[in-house]
Amino acid sequence: MAISTTFFIVAIVIVAIWLLIEAKRLKHKLWAFFLIGLILFTYISFTVSLKNHEIDLTSVGGVIDAGKLYMAWLGGMFNNAKAVTAYASKQNWSEVDESATNTTTELENIWSKL
User: Fold this and answer.
1) Torsion over CA: 27, 28, 33, 39 (sign)
2) What values do phi and psi take at 91, rounded to 5?
3) Distance CA 72, CA 77 (A)
4) Which of 71, 69, 51, 73 is CA-nearest to residue 61?
5) Where are the domains of the chain?
6) Which of 87, 43, 88, 51 has the alpha carbon at shortest distance from 69?
7) What is the pTM of this model?
8) Contact 45, 73 (CB under 8 A)
C-alpha cells in the first residue's frame, strides 16, 4: 500500500515538473511567434505603404520621408479601424430581425388567401 501511494505522489510530482517546463517552453514559443508576426507585419506594411512612391532609401532624407509616409499610413489604418468599430457599435444588434418578421407576415397573408 505504501509503495503505490509513494508511486502516485512521485508520478504527480513528475507530471507537475513536466507541465511547468512545457509552460515555460510554450511561453517562449508564443513570444517567438509574436516577434515573427510583428516583423512580418512591419515588413509587408512598409513595402505596401511605399509601393507607389519613388523614395530613395539610401539617403537620410529618403529614410525620413519613408518613415513619415509609413507613420501616416499606419495612423490612417488605425483611424479606419476606429471608424469601422464605431460604426459597428452603433448598429442595432437586437435579436429581432425586422425584415424576417415582415417576410413571415407576408407569407402568412399569402397562405391565408389560399
Assistant:
1) positive
2) -75, 155
3) 9
4) 69
5) 1-42, 50-88
6) 51
7) 0.55
8) yes
In one-letter notation, the amino acid at residue 24 is: K
Determine the Cα–Cα distance for residues 79 and 89; give it in Å rounded to an integer: 15
Residue 3 is which amino acid?
Answer: I
**How big is the chain, counted in residues?**
114
Q: What count of other Cβ atoms lies within 10 Å of the Cβ of residue 83?
A: 10
Other beta carbons within 10 Å of 65: 16
The string of DSSP letters for 14-65 reads HHHHHHHHHHHHHHHHHHHHHHHHHHHHHHHHHHHHTTTS---TTSHHHHHH
Read off the pLDDT of residues 55-77 as tens digits, 9 standing for 90 and up: 888 899 999 999 999 999 999 99
The terminus-to-terminus CA distance of the chain in angstroms comes to 81
> Residue 19 corresponds to which cell in the numbers above?
507541465
